[in-house]
């Protein structure tokens, strides 16, 4: 145990551990109680217990194991009360849970054995597939998985979807209710069912990665724990579906993007734009892994999709030793293909940046101006940020300052807001 902590410090520690371990805890509990809604409720009970106990007893040496064991005890107690125990669970309750419950309080519980349970390796994957079951509408699948697997708050999910927070909350509640009522099996689906659920699974994994890569809210620009979890899941999926090019495309995309982690912030934790990053700090091992995954995607001889195309764009950046060596012509062409395969306003905005690098800022600005009235980008802070950058390159500094200030108002991430305000100040000082 660590020394006794104050309530605020204990709360921050609990929240950090929850981000890292919540998916495995909820997954393990779902395997036990066969009800994802009840599993999350029991996991939350363990979280409350930690908030109550850790300020008094200190943080356990294995906090994830403490949460797991506490949650399992609550699950067993609930099953006992409901008279739904079979012989195996009853034996577990009598021989394991009672012994370990006492061990928690005297500090001798075998937390490592609990958190390293071999079944936990697959629990998160099962959890993703149950959350992405076809019985749920696609938006509900994504929201529920972000909640259960990514450990994201309802507010963070709402930001990722660019929809109202109450809408996301309703989706999550209804999704858990539906899964319980339909008694959806907690399993990785057989091959015939896997394909139809794979697209939403990939979307979820990438949204989790993006929340870690560019946090939508809070005081940190990066949340590496979420990126690591998304990367792990992407690698597992790549082995599960070796003939699916999009699985390898997503894995490649995440590997290459993750390679930039050490260069994406300065010593003060402030964002560093791609063009200004020290490419010597990029992780070459992750880049090689990304290139390998991209080659695997191509070797399937099947039509490419949006993740393969985005990975190819990321590979163009990774291959350039200096920012000025970037093959923007190829990137612009890849974005055009992406817009044909999977059109979206965000892809169009990214394409505008590539066009500005090949045909000048005026050409890029004309595309951005076409997007200013798009409803999906109304509160998207990167739209005014890109517009401000292009205006600054054209020497229209007063207009650029206004755009950077608007972008700063829209973002909920503190380091990003500070960076945008610095750009606004610099534009106004010219």
TrEMBL record:
- Could you tell me one molecular function GO term of this UniProt entry? sigma factor activity
| Gene3D superfamilies attached to this UniProt entry | 1.10.1740.10, Winged helix-like DNA-binding domain superfamily/Winged helix DNA-binding domain
The RNA polymerase sigma factor 70 region 4 type domain covers 128-179
List the GO biological process terms.
DNA-templated transcription initiation
Boundaries of every RNA polymerase sigma-70 region domain copy: 24-84
Q: Give the domain of life.
A: Bacteria
Keyword annotations for this protein?
Sigma factor, Transcription, Transcription regulation
Q: What is this protein called?
A: RNA polymerase sigma factor
